[in-house]
Each structure stands twice: as structure tokens, then as C-alpha cells.
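Human: Not sure, check this?
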Amino acid sequence: MFSFFKKKKPADAPAAAPAAPLPSPSPDITAPRPGGSLIGSALVTPIEIPVPGAAPAVREHWVSKLRSGLNKTGASISGVFTGTQIDEALYEDLESALLMADSGTGATAYLLDEVRRRVKDSGVTHPVAVKNILTDALTQLLKPLEQALVIGEFKPTVIMVAGVNGAGKTTSIGKLTRHLANEGASVLLAAADTFRAAAREQLEVWADRNRVEIVSQEGGDPAAVSFDAVSAGKARGKDVVLVDTAGRLPTQLHLMEELRKIKRVVSKADSTAPHEIILVIDGNTGQNALSQVKAFDDILQLTGLIVTKLDGTAKGGVLAAIALWARERAKASPGLKPVPVYFIGVGEKLEDLETFNAREFSQALLA
């Protein structure tokens, strides 16, 4: 399996200030862990980190699943290239197919212009060659989304994870935790999704599966849970603190404001945090996913994305629309960090979340 993040040595830090006290009272700071040892008010369990494997066959298996998952999207686009000549009808069909795949009007126009220009410059005459040109043009558009998640520059690296209900947010946190553990990172989970019933229990299941610690409070305030988790992560020397925030729609302004509060409170526990703010979006929702990205970015200034449920959808082209938005955002606000797609998902198993690779995705989409 390919390594999905870059490790950095922590920068020289100033003399440590006295640790901020945890809010009081702070009941149930961690869920009980079999075999753990009590330290203060927190129950700590030793974690056995598995040795990561990097066999190319594992990645090839993943690419095969990606290709299969994107079949519904790819079939509608690839069907355009079954003719015998390159003519205006081909371009019109390609435009319709890209729009049906939810690439959006902007990304569709960009790709069509690129394909037309490259066809003219290269002098190709067969539609199959146009398909190869489209694959290269799509790869070029998506390439800026292909960035590594950096862990280790800060300790702990605090990652806030947001997303609407049903996008696969909590499940993605569980899968991401497994990736981190496989790479040798120690992880602490924060059950700050106190808005949805049973969300804490769901995250505790993932903590058990991955043998990592969790900070939670039954019925607690999400910001207080987040503060506790970051403080505990610093005290215990964790590499990563993953904060599961409540799912909400961008139109629920009072709940979106709560996200701002969590971000502010996290920065009180660690003045450099949060270091990553990742949005989980459902690939099935097409252009609505792009609307979510824009809305959450306005509130939180996103640093990365996880795109789930790409298997079985006919709307995989939405990544092209996201790529064009990211390009325009970078031009409009040069001071902001880029918003890459760190991971994409094509299933429910732990191994069904993997790093995003622009060429792999383009080739799988247009296979």
C-alpha cells in the first residue's frame, strides 16, 4: 500500500507553557478500554501499531475496485468514442456526457476546449485517440488535488472532520484512523458529534476496531469535548487528534456557527490548531457536493476533502468541477492553502478508502 502522508520533524518549539487545565467537570473523558491503565481521570490503552505493507499488488487491487466503482460514470463518457470519425457530433455527445456526469458547465467547457486544441495540434483522426487526450486533459485538471496529508510538523496534528449527515463522515474517520495506525502514528479520537443520536457509540466502535483511545462526554458540549481531546492529545504525546464534528447542512446556520466555535476552542487548547480541516462529501450527490464544499469553506477555510461512495454513482465527474473551483479559489485568495482531495472511497470496508491519484482516477473513469 502506498504511503499516504508525509512525515515532518516537529519544528523547534518555544519553551512549553503550563498546560491549560481541562474544563471541569469533565465526565467520561474516555470510554472504558479493556486492559487499559488509569492515569488521572483518563483510561489509557497501549496500542500495538501494525507494520505497514507497501506491496504494489495492494494498490493494483484498489485501482481495480476504483475502475469498477466508476463504471457507471465512465460508461456514459466512453460510449462517445465508439464511432469512426472525429466530428462536431462527437464533441456535442462528449459535452452531454460530461454534463450528465456532473462535471459542471465550467469544467466541461474547460475540458472540451483542451480536447479540441490538442486534437487540432496533434492531428489525430480516430475517436480512440480523443479518449486518450481527454484522459490526459482530465489528469492535468485534477493534478492540483493530488497532495499528501502532512503529519508530524505539529504534535499532535489536530484534524477537524466535518460533513453533512449521511456523507460517511464517521465511517471515513474510522478508515482514516486505520491508515494512520498502519503508518505508525498514534491517534486519539474526539467524539464531538453530540448532535446525532448514537454518533458517540458509532465512533467508539471504530476506536475499538482500530485499538485507539477516544475522548467523549455523554451529552457534552461539542466544543468542550474537542478542547478535552486536544489537551489530552498533547499530554499523552499523540501524533494525531481526530475531531468528529456534528453532521449538519450548510443551511443550518446555527449549527454551522457551532463549527466556528469548535475551531475557536480548539485553538485555545493549541494555538497552532486545527492543522487540518477536512470535509467529507458524498460523491453520489454531484453538484450538491460542490455546493457543500463552497459553503463549508466559507465557514471554516477547508484544507482538504474526502470524497466517499464513488462506487455505483454516475456522477463521478464532480471531481472535475471541484478541481476547477479549487483553481479559481487559489487565484482569488492566494494566501489560502489549496484544498486537495486527500482520499476517495469506493466501499464500506476499512481498506476501501485510499489516497487520491489524478492519473489513476482519470484512467479508471475513462477505462
About this structure: The chain has twelve helices and twelve strands.
